[in-house]
C-alpha cells in the first residue's frame, strides 16, 4: 500500500466523544429535532430504538451548536445524493455520528470529511462468513489465522474501520468494502480507496479506547487521479465529483 504525504496520527477531529443514549438527560429532547428527523425516528418499531435515535441526533445537534454558537434546534441540514448530511448554512464543519445499542460516537472537525463507526462488543458467530463477503483476501486470511477467542473482536475492529472510511467519503454502496484494505488491528494508517478512476487517501485510526466496544474514525484527506485507469462510467464519475466538493482544495491533487 502506498502512503500519502501526511501524518498518520492526524485525524483532525477536536470533538470526538462517546454518548450514553440511555442516560436520563438524553430523554425529552425530541423538540430539538426537525420534522425529517422525527419522521425517521417514528419508523423504528421498538421504543428503545426510537429513543436512542432521538438522543443521538439531539446530542449531535448540541455538539454542532457548541461549535458555531447557534441553538441546536435552529440548525438546518442538507443531504448528499447518498445521504451524507452537512450543515445547510454557517461555517463548514465536517461531522459524523454512529451508534450501537445504547452507545453513540460523534466526531466534528473543520479540515476534511469525517466518518466514525462504533460497535458494542458482542458475539459474532458468523464472523468468517461475513468476512468472506466484505473483507479483502488478506484481511480474511489474517482473521482466520487468529485463535477463535480473538476472532470476533478483530472482526468488529475491521468492520468499524471499513464503515468509518465509507462514511467519510459518503458514497454509499458504490464502493464495495472488499475493494480496500484497512487491516484487522486497531492501528493508525493511511488507506487508499479506488473510486471512479481515482485513489482517495484517508487517515484511519481507532476511536478513544473503551472496554465494552470498538470504534474507528477516518478522515478523507487527498485525492489522486490514477494513470492507466480505464475510464469511469459517467454515473460513477458524476457521483465522485459531487462528493469531492467536500474535500478542501488544498488537500486535492488532480
Summarize the helices and strands and which ones pair or pack.
Blueprint (H helix, E strand, L loop, with lengths): L14 E6 L14 H8 L4 H22 L8 E3 L5 E3 L6 E7 L2 E7 L4 E7 L6 H8 L2 H9 L2 H22 L19 E7 L2 E9 L6 E13 L8 H11 L10
Antiparallel strand pairs: 1-5, 2-3, 4-5, 6-9, 7-8, 8-9
Helix pairs in contact: 1-2
How would a textbook summarize the main sheet? 4 strands, antiparallel
Give the proportion of residues in helices: 25-40%
Within the CATH hierarchy, at the fold level, what is the topology? Ribosomal Protein L22, Chain A
List the secondary-structure elements in sequence, H or E: EHHEEEEEHHHEEEH
Helix vs. strand class: alpha+beta
Number of spatially distinct domains? 1
Q: Would you count the extended β strands for me? A: 9
Radius of gyration: 18 Å
Q: According to CATH, what is the class?
A: Alpha Beta
In terms of DSSP E residues, the strand content is 15-25%
CATH architecture: Alpha-Beta Complex
Shape: globular
How far apart the termini lie comes to 20 Å
Catalogue the unreliable spans: 1-8, 229-238, 248-254
Mean pLDDT across all amino acids: 87
Enumerate the strands of the largest sheet in spatial order, edge to edge or round the barrel.
Answer: 6-9-8-7
Task: Please name the fourth-level CATH homologous superfamily.
Answer: 4'-phosphopantetheinyl transferase domain
Number of helices, where a helix is a run of at least 4 consecutive DSSP H or I residues: 6
